[in-house]
Amino acid sequence: MSKIIEVKVPNIGEFEKVPVAEIIVKAGDIVRSEDPLVVLESDKTTMEIPAPIGGMVDKIKIKIGDEVSEGTPILTLVTGDLSVSPESGGIATSSVVTDTKVSKLPHAGPGVRKLARELGIDLSKIVGSGKYGRIIQEDLERFDDRETKTPITSNDIVSVDCLNSPQVNFAKFGPVEIKPLGRVKKISAANLHRNWVTIPHVTNHDDADITDLESFRLQINKEMEKSGVRVSILSFVIKAAAATLKKFPEFNTSLNGENLVFKYYYHIGFATDTENGLVVPVIHNADQKGIVEIAKEVSALTELARDGKIKTNQLQGGTFTITSLGSIGGIYFTPIINAPEVAIMGISKSYWKHVSPDGKQCLWRYMLPLSLSWNHQVIDGASAAHFNMHFAKLLADMRWILI
Fold first, then answer.
1. What pTM was computed for the model?
2. Which superfamily is assigned to 107-180 in CATH?
3. Catalytic residue among 201, 267, 284, 376
């Protein structure tokens, strides 16, 4: 006796509206309990949704790109009187019943599935070398059948075919230790690689004179010492970014095919270093918030990110990103644009510089290095130069924001 049950997204913690990255099964597939059905992929993690019970897939209720949360229907399963007898004890593979034969669904974890999508590799063409025939990352690295690879495209951007990195047995040269790449770093690595390869980056470097701003910042912190609030230069940079984006709206856009989407909200992301890698919390409507309010929000979001408790909506909606090396050192660098944004501002460690503004007297001034990377598909060099100059002008005297 068979019956139809509806499979829904189970408890996935605090995650909400997580995009569907892959649908592993299709109507007519036979699955066993715990076989993967779909893959969800957020900015923080990749997760598989398994079958709660064995059966035959009846109807798929979602599509790739849909955002799902706990309780969202995924598909329906016909259970009961079905002949299900996959190999390997049913742990690794599922059988797919077709008109004349039985084929196997590729068995791989979410990280391997994601890497295969990035590389354009069809997992059905690979024989897994892991336990019970599971496809592992090394199988992808060894796989080099170019005829079975599909192009990696985004808004019809042509994929770039590069030579594989050399595979070296480092242990033969001396002691080594192998550690798995963290979950967030795996996601970040793929995104950064895509952004660097598909976006024509140019970076402008400038210095902002923050001598007066630093004095003002120290005064604020002294007066607010008892409240526990500490204002960093980052808070002023976020505020200056929102104001500069209003003056130069093409920096607050995104490419959508052949169209340019102008956004009239100013959500500023800031890169935060955590044990698992970089994450980018977002200060929403930064143009509408004061410096102290921004400072409080930066502190709260940073703590949530480092504790792994930040919510998906606190990482979404960014229109421009700030990335800072100020606490570490260095002068300039080339930050990678956080697509679908078209520009990113990098700030380095402030330093004292001997300058002569009038060509006569020499003064010591406190300078903040700025590194603006921009998408040359959208922005030209003159606009980028004016953006940096205005950005530096606001940091030199925040009163200009009022004008």
1. 0.60
2. E3-binding domain (4.10.320.10)
3. 376
